[in-house]
Amino acid sequence: MMMIFGIPAPLLFGQLLLGLINGAFYAMLALGLSIIFGMLNIINFAHGALFMMGAFAAWVLLHYLGIGYFPALILSPILIGIFGIVLERTLISQLYKLDHLYGLLLTFGLALVIQGLFRNYYGSSGMPYDIPDALQGATNLGFMYLPIYRGWVVIAALVVCFSTWAIIEKTFLGARLRAATENPAMVRAFGINVPRLITITYACGVGLAAFAGVLAAPIYSVNPDMGDNFINTVFAIVVIGGMGSILGSIITGFGLGVIEGLTKVFYPQASATVVFLVMVIVLLFLPRGLFGKTA
Questions:
Q1: CA atoms of 210 and 3, how far apart (whole Å)
Q2: CA-to-CA distance for 16 and 4, rounded, in angstroms?
Q3: Is 6 strand, coil or helix?
Q4: Looking at the domain assignment, is residue 210 inside a domain?
Q5: Taking residues 281-292, what's their average pLDDT?
Q6: Please, what's the largest Cα pairwise distance for the chain?
Q7: In this structure, how many other beta carbons lie within 10 angstroms of the beta carbon of residue 73?
Q8: Which residues contact 238 (CB under 8 A, 6 or more apart)?
Q9: Element (H, E) at 8
Q10: What is each CA distance from 18 to 141, 210, 233, 264, in whole angstroms?
């Protein structure tokens, strides 16, 4: 058996794959958080609950309406995005001129309410969501077998993350969104509906969480607490990448996922805390994060 640094190659590459998969979810969730914070100045603590709702939406669509995985990848983010629009218009829009703490407290309370409702109705045990037939099986790479679905998750996350970054940073719509948050009075002077842009921004951030939830459903059991397994780490990743930095969230999400996976091979005891250790080190030298904007 081939060894790398004294570690069996299949074990090392298997952990790298797991790190990339976790990194894919970290990146998508961190990207949604960064969009909402960077554009709206709201720390959306309900993001993990919305991730969970995306997985549940896919499960409900399959088991009650017979709608399969690939349509659910489109429908679930739309449905949860509409729910996000209702939240933004009725509750979150009241907090834009207040301190960040109020937004954090509101969204934290919303997360508890949403999780409690799902736990009361569905219970705490996980419900399976089958991998679609087209993505079942594995392919032999020579040094390891790559499960097709897990490879799909990484590719889909990369495409969605960098497409979102390109839209925000390189298109006219993205320029409007950034301008609406930085100087809303000027944007209104050009006849642009700023509240609508802000609502769309929040819905897109929520939709990214729901999309990640659908991708996660076949890997992790669909349960009300599934968002809790990610959200604390994701907040740390957003801080490391730089609060509100779109590109920073993507790169840091994937990078920290890989570092976490390698830590499980070389020093398993530290795998649960390595992300937070990196956060402490980064903030000691770069208080604004790796990609944070200077004042």
A1: 39
A2: 13
A3: coil
A4: yes
A5: 88
A6: 68
A7: 18
A8: 30, 33, 34, 37, 249, 252
A9: strand 7-8
A10: 16, 21, 15, 10
pTM (two decimals): 0.90
In terms of residues, how long is the chain? Answer: 295
pLDDT of residue 129: 92
Number of other CB atoms surrounding residue 9 within 10 Å = 15
Among residues 217, 64, 207, which one has the least CA distance to residue 149?
Answer: 217
Q: For residue 142, tell me if it sits in a domain.
A: no
| CATH (domain of 222) | 1.10.3470
Q: Does some domain include residue 139? A: no
Q: For residue 138, how many other CB atoms are within 10 A of its CB?
A: 13
Tokens representing residue 165 in the block: 């970054």
- Structure-token pair, residue 185: 């009075």
Quick one: pLDDT at residue 101? 83
Residues of the domain holding 82: 14-129+148-285
The phi, psi pair for 131, rounded to 5°, reads -65, 135
d(CA 238, CA 275) in angstroms, rounded, equals 11
Strand partners, 7: 4
Write down the pLDDT at residue 98: 78
Report the number of distinct structural domains present in the chain: 1
State pLDDT tens for residues 172-212: 877 777 776 666 677 777 777 778 888 888 898 999 999 99
**Backbone phi, psi, residue 127, to 5°:** -115, 130
Contact 181, 40 (CB under 8 A): yes
Q: What percent of the chain has pLDDT over 90?
A: 43
Q: Is the pLDDT of residue 5 over 60?
A: no
